[in-house]
Design goal:
The protein is an alpha+beta fold. Helices cover about 30% and strands about 35% of the residues.
């Protein structure tokens, strides 16, 4: 897949250093899943990507690169939420040097289109920490709207969604 400025493609073995760097960056991972990973946890996730995640047909996970210089920009995906598999969730996170360039909005728009056009989803979801104003702005820019609050062991977070225009 691509956008005006980005290539969104499956990870290749040569992308390992990029992903490990992203997953072990405390600022990048501040609002992602269980937070920053140790190098061992990131290595385990990398192994699972090829051994488990890619073979599963429902998991769409990609590396994102800038077209202009083929630099690694970040990570993206769309897949069923573990705790609510009927809800497909859009995810993206970028390396620090790529914050503030509009890439997150481009990625989110492209993955939403992919979800509706290729996966034939009727609704796409995103979860976001309530204090992560940057991601909330991105979700709102791409047409997602607040749907509800949910709670986990870390507290409250928001669920946003967008419905297919059919």
């Amino acid at each position: 897949m691509e956008t005006e400025r980005l290539l969104i493609k499956k990870y290749e073995l040569t992308d390992k250093p990029h992903l490990l760097s992203l997953f072990t960056d405390d600022e990048v991972m501040k609002y992602v899943g269980d937070g920053v990973m140790t190098m061992t946890q990131a290595e385990d996730w990398w192994r699972k990507l090829f051994a488990k995640f890619y073979p599963e047909k429902n998991l769409k996970i990609w590396a994102v690169f800038a077209k202009e210089n083929n630099a690694y920009v970040g990570h993206a995906g769309i897949y069923p939420r573990p705790e609510k598999p009927e809800e497909w969730e859009l995810v993206y996170f970028l390396s620090r040097e790529n914050w503030g360039k509009g890439y997150a909005t481009e990625i989110a728009r492209r993955i939403i289109n992919y979800g509706f056009e290729e996966l034939k989803l009727m609704e796409i979801y995103a979860t976001v920490n309530d204090d992560h104003s940057g991601s909330i702005r991105v979700l709102e820019k791409v047409g997602m709207r607040f749907k509800r609050f949910e709670f986990d062991d870390d507290g409250s977070f928001s669920v946003y969604s967008i419905s297919a225009k059919r």
